[in-house]
Amino acid sequence: MTADRRATRQQRVASLRHGTVVDHLSPGMALKALEMLGVPSEGAALLGIHLTSEKMGRKDILKLENVEISAEQIEKLALFGPNASVVFIRDYEVVRKVQVELPDRIHGVLRCRNPSCITNHDRVPTYFDVTQRAPTMVRCAHCERRMGEHEFELL
């Protein structure tokens, strides 16, 4: 792809003055990531879904104006893109870039899809062990139900 074509494509979306960009989310995961992060109360949220990516084939991207996400939120983002990166922007400049890392165990983020699981009946915290990283697959530590990333339901 030529530099002129890349520049033209990048001009379709305004640059962020202040905010956060979450790039390289798994295809179809930007909406779930936005649900987890929450829509900014001030500023815009921009989603790019199923965009072409040289690195991944297809990817999603999320731009959040006037938002700086926390380290805890970055860890949770790994559920929606184990290869994702988080870029912090101030005055149109990149000030920090973080590569997300999927932990071996996920605590208190997902709901188990098994209606018989104890976590859906008692006040028992949810724990999921990561069994596969790309695409992300997890297993409930209580009932051993397996779930893929398109089945994830946030608490």
Structure description:
- The protein is of the alpha+beta class.
- The chain has helices spanning about 5-10, 30-35, 70-75, and strands spanning about 20-25, 45-55, 55-65, 85-90, 95-100, 105, 125-135, 135-140, 145-150.
- It has a 5-stranded antiparallel beta sheet, with helices on one face. The chain has a 4-stranded antiparallel beta sheet with strand order 6-7-8-9, with no helix packed on it.
- It starts with a helix and ends in a 7-residue tail after the last strand.
Average pLDDT score: 86
In the sheet with the most strands, the strands line up as 2-3-1-4-5
Largest sheet: 5 strands, antiparallel
Number of strands: 9
Cα-atom radius of gyration: 17 Å
Please mark out the parts with pLDDT under 50 across 5 or more consecutive residues, or reply none: 7-12
- The run of helices and strands is HEHEEHEEEEEE
Coarse structural class: alpha+beta
Per DSSP, what share of the residues sits in E-state strands of 2 or more residues? 35-45%
Percent range of helical residues: 10-25%
Note the overall shape: globular
Alpha carbon gap, first and last residue: 42 Å
Number of helices: 3
